[in-house]
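Now for one record.
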Amino acid sequence: MKQLVLLFTFLLSSFCSISQDVNILDFLKQQPLVQDIDTLACHDFFEEAYKILVKQPVNHSDTTQGYFSQRVLLFHHSTDAPMVLNTEGYAAHYATSPNYINELCPHLNANLITVEHRYFGQSVPENIDWSQLTVANAAADHHIITQLLKPFYKSAWLSTGISKGGQTAMYHKAFYPDDVDATIAYVAPLNFGVEDGRHEPFIANKAGSKTGRKKVNNFQLTLLKCREKLSPLFQQYIDENELTFQLPVEEIYDYCVLEYSFAFWQWGYALNSIPPPDTSVHALFDHFMEVSSPNYLSKEGSAGIYPFFVQAAHELGYYGYDIKPFRKHLKIKTTKNYLERIFLVPNSTILYNGETMKRVKSFIDSTTHNMMFIYGENDPWSATAVNIKPKPNLVKVVKNGGSHRTRINNLPELQQKRVVEIISSWIDKPLKAK
C-alpha cells in the first residue's frame, strides 16, 4: 500500500510539473474537441493568438443530430491573468484583425476569447435546422468552451458582449451561472415580444429632448410629404446597389421613414445634422440614406444576419413602429408582423416562445452572481433595458445622452473609474453564489 501511495504521489507531482510547462498551444493540441488551430497576428497587448475550431453538437440535448465547428478566437496575455469571454451575437471575423482588442482587457490585464455565435459566419452546420438555433443551445456552446479552457486559465473569468452579444452573455450566465465570476452586458435589451411595445413610446416621449424629438418627427413627415420628389432618387439608389425586397418599393420607402427615428437615436446622430425642410431634395435624400437606407430591409443587406431574425421571431423579440403620427401619408396600413413579412423566408412557421426571456428575467431578479448592465440614455434599446434593484452584485450604468455606441471607455471619467473599480473588485473577490 505504501508503495502505491508513493507511486501515486510521484505520478501526481510529475503531472503537475508537466502541466506547469505546457504552453497554450500545446494545451490546445491535446484537446479532443479542438478540431483545427491557426496562428493569428494580434494586438501587441497579447503574447499570441489562435483561431480554433471547436466541435459542438447541433443539438446539445441529442447529439445524434450531428455536430458543427464553432470558430473561437483566443488571445493569450498571461496564464495567470483573468479571462474575458466575449460572447459575440453574430459573426466574429472582425476579431481576426491584428488590431483587435476588447476594452476590458487593458483595464483588467486580461486574456480574451471571442466566440462566434452558432449559425453565423463560419460557425454554421452543414445542414441547417433552424429549430436548433436556440438560446439554450447557444448557452451550452459557451459552457463547453468555458469548460474546455478553464483547466488552463484558472484565474477569474468574466463574460461580456455588445448588443446581441450582450444578450448572449446574459443568457449564458442565466443558464450556466457558475461558468464565469461576472458578466458585463453592454446595451443589451431584454425583450418580451416580437414587437415588444415599449420602444415606440420611448422614442415618442423619452429619447433626447422634447425639441429634439419634434425635429426628428418633423423630418420624417417631410420625407413622406416629399415622397414624389424623393422617390426617383430612392429607386436610383436601389438600382445602383442592386437591392431586392419582399415588399413593394413604395412600402419599403415607408418602412425606411419609420425606421429613421429608431436609427437616429440608436446611433446618436447630432440634431444639427438634420437638414431643414426647405433644403435641396438631394440634401434631404443624402441625410435620409445616411441614417435609414433601404439596405437593411433588403434581401441582400439582411442575408448575413438572417439567423438573427429567426432568433428574434422565436425567442429574442424585437421592436415595432408607431404609425399614428404618419398614418395619412403612408402607403402601408399596418406594420404588424413586419419582421416576418420583410425579413423571414415566406411562409415561415416560427412561433414566439416567451418562456425563455421570462426564465432570464427570473434569474436576474433573484441571482447573487455579479452582473453589470451598461446602456445609453437615448438608445431605443434602453426601452427594454434590464430592470434591477441595485445590490452589490447587480449594477446598472446609464450614460447621460448615450447611444447604442456606449462603452466603458466613452463614459464620463468619474463614471468610468467607478465602473472599472466595481468590475475589478468582482474579479479580485468573486461573490460566492448561493
Notes: The beta strands are 34-40, 48-57, 67-76, 83-87, 111-115, 157-162, 182-186, 370-376, 394-399.
